[in-house]
Design goal:
Layout lengths: L4 E4 L23 H9 L5 H6 L4 E5 L1 H14 L4 H7 L3 E6 H18 L3 H12 L3 E4 L3 H4 L3 H9 L4 H10 L3 E3 L16 H24 L2 H18 L2 H18 L3 H39 L9 H11 L6 H7 L8 H10 L5 E5 L2 E4 L2 E3 L6
Parallel strand pairs: 2-3, 2-5, 3-4
Antiparallel strand pairs: 1-8, 6-7
């Protein structure tokens, strides 16, 4: 079948894709008791901060690729892992050797799905691979995190995906083979998809929170916008007029009978209590979703090595980064010299990184699988 081929190094994403909660299988969400226990025993360290950054990072393994394809063929819709990759809320990566392994297994997958290998390859090329960045890790970089070496001892075929996930951690590892990936904190078959669902819940909670915050602000923004418009049309007198209107409203309120003023206060109080209640609900949604997400991701390393810090910043970037820009983003404890980093990036161009613009590098590239002959 040959090897996968590179087709583009662009960062373009399909922002028209809609949210879907349907994952590759039924994801198990935490019970309230489990979440309460998790919150009681959680340490608010670097992972909480890193998971607050966007987008979330994910690494795709062959086992989850298979179930995702099966879900799409069965339902006619891509799984949640792919729809979140399409809308950019999750940025998916795949190690090159994992993609080669998947290509090798495609005939077996196709047979189990009752279709041809060519048909399955076209689905991957059209629906999946345009939204997955493929990274070829140098051998020495795979050994940078001891957790990946422990996975290699369990199964050498899982080593590439484990190495990439360890370097990008905290991140979502989409695999069902949790026993071999145990050193990376995988404890259940559905853990990766649970993380995707938690990420969706987190985004919904953040939208809810933003909406609650904006409710009392919108009238003031409307008044301010109207005053600005009027000021541009009739000059500074507009602000004086608006000030008099506000003052008039206060005077009118003061002149109301005591009973009516009490009713106004009661309504205002009820509105305030309702807003406070919604704000507390939104805050709880965000906090619980973050806690569940943190429980499901591959945790960050105890001591981040420079290779991990470099890859993570490249993975999070919205556009390609120069060596100088990358150095400026790195913590002083893992910061190499600009000249050394530039030389390293150029030495690994078209494998680990791709030069998307002159002097600007992006992590990985988009690949296509060659269609089988016949």
């Amino acid at each position: 079948m040959g090897s996968p081929s590179v087709v583009t190094t662009s960062y373009s994403r399909d922002h028209a894709a809609r949210w879907r909660r349907g994952p590759e299988m039924t994801a198990r969400t935490m019970t309230p008791e489990e979440l309460a226990d998790l919150l009681a025993n959680s340490s608010f360290g670097d992972d909480w901060f890193e998971l607050g950054r966007r987008p979330l990072l994910g690494v795709l393994d062959t086992s989850c690729l298979r179930t995702g394809l099966h879900y799409q063929l069965r339902t006619g819709s891509p799984p949640a892992s792919m729809t979140t990759a399409r809308d950019g809320s999750v940025r998916l990566f795949m190690e090159y050797d994992t993609l080669v392994e998947a290509q090798r297994k495609l005939p077996k997958f196709a047979k189990s799905f009752g279709m041809t290998t060519a048909e399955l390859t076209r689905i991957l090329n059209e629906d999946w691979l345009p939204h997955i960045k493929v990274v070829r890790l140098p051998p020495e970089m795979r050994q940078a995190d001891r957790r990946a070496i422990a996975v290699r001892e369990n199964d050498p075929d899982d080593y590439p995906a484990a190495a990439l996930a360890a370097l990008l951690s905290p991140c979502i590892l989409l695999t069902h083979n949790y026993t071999d990936f145990g050193p990376l904190g995988m404890k259940s078959w559905s853990q990766g998809v649970d993380a995707i669902v938690a990420g969706i819940d987190l985004r919904i909670g953040q939208v809810h929170m933003n909406a609650v915050v904006m409710v009392p602000v919108v009238p003031a923004m409307g008044i301010g916008g109207a005053a600005k418009w009027a000021s541009e049309k009739i000059g500074p007198w507009a602000w004086i007029i608006f000030g008099l209107l506000v003052l008039g409203g206060v005077v009118i309120y003061k002149r109301q009978p005591q009973e009516r003023r009490e009713k106004i206060k009661k309504v205002a109080s009820q509105v305030g209590v309702a807003l406070l209640d919604e704000a507390m609900k939104a805050t709880a949604e965000v906090h619980l979703a973050t806690a569940q997400l943190r429980a499901c991701v591959v945790p960050g390393p105890s001591n981040r090595v420079p290779e991990s810090a470099i890859l993570r910043e490249l993975a999070m970037a919205e556009e390609s980064l120069s060596a100088q820009q990358l150095v400026d983003l790195l913590d002083e404890s893992v910061r190499p010299s600009v000249a050394r980093l530039r030389a390293y990036l150029r030495a690994n161009d078209k494998t680990l990184v791709y030069e998307a613009r002159r002097g600007g590098f992006a992590l990985g590239a988009h690949y296509r699988l060659r269609l089988p002959h016949g």
